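Holo prediction. Input below; ligand is 3-(2-carboxyethyl)benzoic acid.
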Amino acid sequence: MLRQEYLPANAVPDTAHLLAQPGVLALVSFGDACVAGAQPGIIPLGMPSLCDKPWEVIRYGDSIAERGTDEHCQWSLIEDVLCVATWIAPEDCSDIEAATEVAYGRLFRVIQAKGFPYPFRIWNFMPDINNGDGDREEYKKFCVGRQRAFDDYHVAPQEYPAASALGHHTKGAVIYLLAGRNSGVHHENPRQQPAYQYPREYGPTSPSFARATSLALRSKQQVFVSGTASIIGHNTQAVGDLEQQLTITFDNIQHLLVHVGQGESELSGVRVYLRHPQDLAVARAFFAARLPALAVNFIHADICRSQLLVEVEALAS
Ligand code: 3EB
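Structure of the complex:
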């Protein structure tokens, strides 16, 4: 199975040594930089950990990853999982719609050329995500560009994979994904309207993602749960109430996992994105009470709807 593990607090890893170890696919870095690293395998997101977990290791299989750079994308490959990351330069973020379509095009060409045409998990991080009014909001422009790219590459809504899309407070954007040779199975949450069918009020194009994607990795069934928030149907719930948003978000994830037949599976790779760093103590207490044994990373990020205070993603195995 694939693992998303946080390195212990304050550990300063020898990244070159780690990347050369068997089973290390990539290193995700939570910090202020959102630029491509000098060599493939390190993925800086531009958003800091609020709880001293600046590194996440994506582990898979037991061979040493093959890595390379194509089309301004950095890729890492172990067995049947390909990880690809691409960055959008700060100056190109002034037209996030066009830049997103271009960046997705690069990613699609790389995964197709390498024989891994099926993305099963995509992460998107961009600056100023809530800037702009109405349809001119950055997130909505991003959604238009992403939708165009899916259309360009003939990916139908039923084929959209699990995703997260968040905002950070630095410059540049990053999109990274995990892809396979065969398609995963994409799931919706009965409590939530499919995002790709959100009504017009949420933007000129709907967001292109599934609530979760499941697949077997080394024979282990795993569910990649998309960024999940306090939304029922298509409506934002509990505006201004962090505790309630946490409860509804957590219930949404539980409901989804039961729905896909993985209600008893173990969670890992839990990221809790918080709009306000001062909400850390309350969010921490919430997760400590419900999942006491679980390593959770709390990340400072803007959620794509300005009334949302928190978003949570996880890997269920
Ligand atoms: C939502 O449910 C909250 O645009 O890729 C969650 C996960 C959200 C992914 C995306 C957006 C995305 O609509 C926001």
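The chain is about 20% helix and 35% strand. That is the main takeaway for now.
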